[in-house]
Each structure stands twice: as C-alpha cells, then as structure tokens.
Amino acid sequence: MTPMDSIRYLKHFLRCGFMSIDPTTGHVKAYIGGPNFSHFQYDMATSGKRQVGSTIKPYLYTLAMEEGLWPCDKVMNLPVTLKDGNGNNWTPRNSSKSRIGQEVTLRWALANSNNWISAYLMGLFTPESLVKLMQSFGIRSHLDPVVSLCLGPADISVAEMVDAYTAFPNKGIRVDPLYVTRIEDANGNVIAAFTPQMHEIFSESTAHKMIYMLKSVVDGGTGGRIRGRYGLTMPMGGKTGTTQNNSDGWFMGFTPSLVSGVWVGGEDRSIHFDNIAEGQGASMALPIWALYMKKVLGDNTLGYSAQENFNIPSSFNANEGCEENVFVE
C-alpha cells in the first residue's frame, strides 16, 4: 500500500460532529469532534465548518414570525425568482413535487423543507436582515448577504448551530455554551466560577410559533422517521439539512431540556453520496440524534423524561384557522 492509498483510505471515512446543550443553563452535555483522536484529530464539532443546508431555514422563518407572519399564513407553492447581487435571476429548485400549484401554509412549507417558500420569504425581506438576525443567534462564521443564503450555502460549525437553536425551546433567549462551571485548586478552593450568558433574540410569541412549526418537521415532515422508525414519542422539534452533491447531512433537534445537533460527511468536501436517499440529513444525521436520545431517556440517572412538555401557555393557539395536514402527501 502506497502513502496515497493510505490517504485515500482515511479520507473516505465518514466523519461526525455532535454537540448537546441544556438550553436553560448552556451546560454542554455531550461533545464529539470525531471518531478517534489517534487517527482523526480535526474537531468537526467546533473547528470544522460545513454548509448547513436547510437547517438554516428556521432562522428565516423566525424573521418572518417576528415581522408578524403566522404558521398558518398561506402562500402559493410555485417557483420563485429573485434577483441576486449582480442583477441576475435566481430560481431555486425543489426536491419534491408535492402540492405544486396549491396554496400551502408556512407550517407545511417548513415541515417539508420547501425551497420555493423559503425563496418567497427571502423576497419579503433582505439578505442583510437575515444575516443580522443570524448573527444575533450567535453565528460567528462569515455569512454572505445573498438571496441564496436562505437555502443554507453558508459554512457553519455544529457548535454554533446548537448554540443558536437553544433560543427555540428557551422562549427566544439564546444561551452561550458553558464547557466549565468552575475551576478549583488542589485543596478544593474555587479559583473561578462561570455562569451562563443569556441573549434575548426574539419574542416569546415567536418562540411558540417556531416550536409549533418545528414540531411539525418530526411529526410528519422530513424528520418523520424519528417517530416511526425510532419510536421516539416525547415532545420535540427539529430540522433536517442536506447540501449540494449530498456531501453534508444535518439534523438539529431539541426537547424542552436538550438541544442537540449532528453533522455527518467527509472531512474532504469531495466525499459525498451518489444519491439523496442515502446522503440526506434524515438518513445520515437523524439516526444518530435518535439513538442518542433513546440512550438519554433510557438512563434514569440522567433525570430526563419523555413526558416533559414545552412551556407554552394554553391560551396560545398557533393552529387557529389552519385545517390542512402537515404530512407529506
């Protein structure tokens, strides 16, 4: 075996970045940068950055909800053409042909990761406004203010994404990741103590709307297999993500007490699957999230419960006037 053969062999290993955070305290509960540090020393959770695909869409929908839109607002499911920064036409494609030419709710569009509706929403605002909001979410990676940003071409780390998603179950308040709570000397004296840093990003009402829509992703949208195949029944929300050439698979998911994110792909961007059935986030990343949560809920010493629900007032009704089924047809 030549040195090039060895390099080629290692490069074809799929890599994974994973992080899990308590959305109320910021405590990092789990953190995986790679499979084996002896052979794979590049941290794919904090240092590695990859295109996030459709996991970016909840930020765009948050912007829409903050501007007064509701999950049940309806839009025609038709191709949308926008002007890019050079004045050229940009028309995204959809991977699904479901309900073309019909009115669909924003809830359905997010649950089914519809690109046309994302482009429609992007046309209501500006790329700069989306960049500004994402930066308030704690995204520190470079973001180009272009119309295609709404579909997730930006390279962002798992740690940034998980940090950002803490705002959804935490009533619009993002919490910085906390890796160390205190430092003690050899005698047990506390040298330094650290407390969570909170940032209010959006209104509590918008948080309720987003939870409602992101629950639809796993209750019948692109993340629906988490219910059927993996049998997870607890209240949760999430978003799948898949990038160009099926190179990156993402799943961002949260319960009231845990926000966890998974990226799966090759360390080299040229490593990819031949088809979307294998390369999509629902196939690559979602199973890891599901198996992790099954382990967490199966260990009573950890204190997590499948019965814990989101703290949403009974008076809040995001479903008012919405009669359609969110499930993929």
Automatic annotation (TrEMBL):
GO MF annotation terms: penicillin binding; peptidoglycan glycosyltransferase activity
EC category name: transferase
Entry GO terms, CC: membrane; outer membrane-bounded periplasmic space
Main localization of the protein described in the UniProt heading: membrane
Domain Penicillin-binding protein transpeptidase: 19-257
Catalyzed reactions: [GlcNAc-(1->4)-Mur2Ac(oyl-L-Ala-gamma-D-Glu-L-Lys-D-Ala-D-Ala)](n)-di-trans,octa-cis-undecaprenyl diphosphate + beta-D-GlcNAc-(1->4)-Mur2Ac(oyl-L-Ala-gamma-D-Glu-L-Lys-D-Ala-D-Ala)-di-trans,octa-cis-undecaprenyl diphosphate = [GlcNAc-(1->4)-Mur2Ac(oyl-L-Ala-gamma-D-Glu-L-Lys-D-Ala-D-Ala)](n+1)-di-trans,octa-cis-undecaprenyl diphosphate + di-trans,octa-cis-undecaprenyl diphosphate + H(+)
Coiled coil: none
Example GO BP: cell wall organization
Keywords linked to the UniProt accession: Cell membrane, Cell shape, Cell wall biogenesis/degradation, Glycosyltransferase, Membrane, Peptidoglycan synthesis, Transferase
Enzyme Commission code: 2.4.99.28
Compartments reported by the entry: Membrane
InterPro entries listed in its UniProt record: Beta-lactam/transpept-like, Glycosyltr_51/Transpeptidase, PCN-bd_Tpept
PANTHER family in alphabetical order: BINDING PROTEIN TRANSPEPTIDASE, PUTATIVE-RELATED, PENICILLIN-BINDING PROTEIN 1B
Protein name as it appears in the record: peptidoglycan glycosyltransferase
Gene name tied to this protein: mrcA_13
